[in-house]
Structure formats: structure tokens, C-alpha cells
Amino acid sequence: LLKIAMACNKAAPSTMGTLISGGIMQIAKATKGKTELTEEDLAGLPMLFAEGIMARGKAQRGDKTILDALIPMAEAVKEKFAETGDIGAAYAAGAIAAEAGAEATKGMLAKIGRAKWIGERAQENMDAGAALCAIIAKNIL
Predict the structure, then answer these.
(1) 53: number of CA atoms within 13 Å, CB side?
(2) How many C-beta atoms surround the C-beta of residue 11 within 10 A?
(3) pLDDT-based confidence at 74, cuts 50/70/90?
(4) Ramachandran region of residue 120, left (φ > 0), alpha (ψ -120 to 50) or beta?
(5) Which residue, of 78, 86, 112, 114, has the greatest Cβ tally within 10 A?
(6) Mean pLDDT of all residues belonging to the chain
(7) Alpha helices (runs of H) in the chain, residue ranges in sequence order
(8) Cα(121)–Cα(105) distance, rounded to whole angstroms?
């Protein structure tokens, strides 16, 4: 996973590439030494990924970033898995939460990142990172 994070950072030397790399690195640190991941481990991956992005980018939920979709996804995956023990159902719930979180960025004023430069002109648009998260979430399983 650390090699994947470094390769991602090299292949996508943008802000988003750096953030994605930070998320992957956080997962790598948390799973170091494991040769297999349990379904419980899988249910915790979205939050680890979000924590890595927050540490690297200094953003929080509500800043109109990928985190506005990723954190609700992570919470939904964890909650649904705890309720059902079904990783497929957990990630399906996560996809719904990610999409709702991405939609909720419409109308927000960006507090960080490139969209902040644009200010009110981008306020009515969905955050691109949140939209990306929702698309990926729908296609995980």
C-alpha cells in the first residue's frame, strides 16, 4: 500500500493526487504487517482514508471538499456493517451517503483549496472531489 501511495503521488502530482496518496498511506500504516484484511477491517477503510486526507490537506467536513462525501460514506459503512455484518450492504449504504454528501456541497462556499479561489462563482456547483467520491463509492463492490 505504501508503494501504491507513492506511485499515485508520482502519477498524479496534483493536490488531489497528494490527498489520495495521504489517504492510502493512512490505510497502509493502519494495516501494516497484515497479510489479509477482515470484513471488519474493510468497513473501517473509508474512515482511515478520510483521516489521511484530513491530516494531509488540513480540511474538515463542511469545507466543501471530498470529505463532505467521504466522511458520511465512512460513517454509513461502519454503522451498517455493525448493524448487519454484511460488507456489501455496508458499502451500498456508504454509496448512498456519499452521493447525498456530494449533493449537499451544492450551495456551500468553499473554505479551502482551489474552489476557494473562485469563491461565490462556484457556490452552486457540486464539489468535484465530493462528486468523484460518490462515483467511486457506487462502483466499489
Answers:
(1) 28
(2) 10
(3) very high
(4) alpha
(5) 78
(6) 92
(7) 2-11, 15-31, 39-57, 67-84, 87-103, 114-118, 128-138
(8) 14
For 2, the grid coordinates are: 505504501
Higher-confidence residue: 2 or 49? 49
Cα 139-106-68 angle, rounded to 5 deg:
55
List pLDDT tens digits, range 33-59: 999 999 999 999 999 999 999 999 899
Question: Cα separation of 123 and 118, whole Å?
Answer: 9
Q: Are 72 and 121 in contact (CB under 8 A)?
A: no
Residues 6+ positions from 97 with CB-CB distance below 8 Å: 69, 72, 73, 75, 76
User: What's the start-to-end Cα distance of the chain, in Å?
Assistant: 19
- The yes-or-no verdict on residue 120 having pLDDT over 80 is no
Neighbouring C-beta atoms of residue 6, cutoff 10 Å:
14
How many whole angstroms separate alpha carbon 133 and alpha carbon 17?
A: 13
pLDDT of residue 117: 66
